[in-house]
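ok trying this again, last paste got cut off
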Amino acid sequence: MKQKLFKTLRILFFGLVVLVTLAALWIAEESFRGKRAWENHKREAEARGEKFALAAFVPPPVPDDENFAMTPLLKPLFGPDTGYGTRLGETLKIHGTPANSPAPVLVGMWKAQRVDLKGWGVYLGDPDILGALEKYDTELSEISEASRRRFSRFPIPYEEGFAARLPHITALMGLQRLYTLRALAALSQGDADRAFADEQTLNRLALSVSDEPLLISQLVRLSILSLHCQVIWEGLAAHQWSDTQLTAMQGDLSRLDLLKDVRRALESERAAAADYWPKVVRNPGLLQQMTLMGPAPETARSSFMLQCTAALLRARAWQNLLVLSQFYERYLRAGVDPSAHRVLMEPLKAAEAEMQRLAGTYSLDTPLARLTIPAITPSISKFASSQTTVDEALIACGLERYRLAHGGYPETLEALVPQYLAKLPHDVITGEPLHYRRTTDGLFLLYSVGWNERDDGGVPGVKDKGRQDIQQGDWVWRYPSAQ
């Protein structure tokens, strides 16, 4: 009996060895086949000029004495003191009274609304906003001066890929709010020159991260630009800018090509994934986390099954990169055409449909795509909306220059060319002219049909808590009526 049991166990052990060997061979074969498919795809794409190394997107170093990022206030951000960024962020934060009170918003132009400076006075505990902000004068004076330097290169450790620290982001977010509030307070007191100086610094702050190939850096740049345009808008609504100031603003705005920037950011995100994913494959812990993405069967959540699934994912690692890269080429890049100044909705809608399909399935070929793409596809709508705001601000400056010269706004936008505007930007969504008409109160309405591709008559989209919904409604530039 014991001999029979021993024989049975030996057979079972031999069968287990065979199964493990076959599984190992299958994993090796799948990995080899996937890697070959990935390398073929990569080689063909590189022959077309594609780049798959994040290092290819990293801007070159610049001299420290010409580098905005090396000003004393910002230089320690990437130093050995990892707590410096947190402390600087707290220094640059606009603190309210009481400390837990919510700060008023700083952007309202999308619904023709000025920033609530009275509310800001209550928040600061001082109706004299300029006086309350004087405690930041040392930091703001340094930044204003340093921002005039020729270059800006923060020493981001790009080799760390998605795990790289970005402490400068918090500092820039704090600075943008300070400059915006100070500029708006100056406008409220009729000091357009002081407001213009801060508007120019806001423009340079946005430029300080323009060369960074990371999507998050470009999204921060959009945030700075939105506040920058709010300052321009408020000065225009009150007719406070001079022709010289308006011309300078137009020069700054005309150089912004956000569609080109998002295209580069998308390509660098793919390169970052190509750099980072092989590291994930070699890390069992990270691989196990990947198996929990999407509707994985509950059985895969047990420890043993988790390890087995991670092993299978390792076998399909290269296919993940292939799926991600093909998704970029087929949908995301096809949806952004900087040369035509267009966002093309058909491939972007197809991308959304494909992501919904991937979210409802579980495949070992798609965890990387499910991890990366949902954070990227909505970003394109933000870039399209921001580019539209920039284009509308450019036109609005031309309209104000026309009004200063002729006493009123023109009947059509074509009247601005070429004296007040070199050429008219078109709607990035449709490729057609932006909608424009004079209104009965002596003002005008300027808008794009927006992400829904529908003319809503110049009505913006609104979602819960009164926030802008850029997925719905028109993208509008108009002023509050004086009547």
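PB: full thing came through this time. Residues 290-302 have pLDDT under 50 and may be disordered.
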